[in-house]
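> example.struct
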């Protein structure tokens, strides 16, 4: 049994769909701007250093004194908030890819 379809509201046209390889041109971020990123991983030696070194790769002016740390309830995990100066979408994409590929990192938000 097929369901009847309802035409979209408005002028009856659907918004364009981005194909593979097409980038969205509009952005909610104005560049350059301070951009906080939360990185979570197991609480272990070297984790904070690894995260701050990656931040420095993408933001030479990164100030490690601005790093915020938060332990999980049982102390097994650590949330590290870094604030970088975002200069482009590409910079942020590359930073996220580098952070998520690091073996000590579990989640990047």
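> example.seq
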């Amino acid at each position: 049994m097929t369901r009847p379809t309802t035409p979209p509201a408005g002028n009856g046209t659907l918004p364009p769909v981005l194909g593979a390889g097409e980038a969205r041109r509009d952005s909610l971020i104005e560049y350059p701007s301070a951009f906080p990123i939360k990185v979570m991983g197991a609480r272990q030696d070297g984790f904070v250093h690894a995260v701050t070194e990656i931040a420095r790769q993408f933001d030479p002016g990164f100030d490690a004194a601005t790093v915020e740390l938060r332990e999980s309830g049982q102390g097994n995990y650590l949330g590290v908030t870094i604030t970088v100066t975002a200069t482009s979408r590409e910079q942020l994409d590359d930073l996220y890819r580098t952070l998520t590929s690091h073996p000590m990192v579990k989640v990047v938000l």
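> remarks
The helical segments are 47-58, 89-101.
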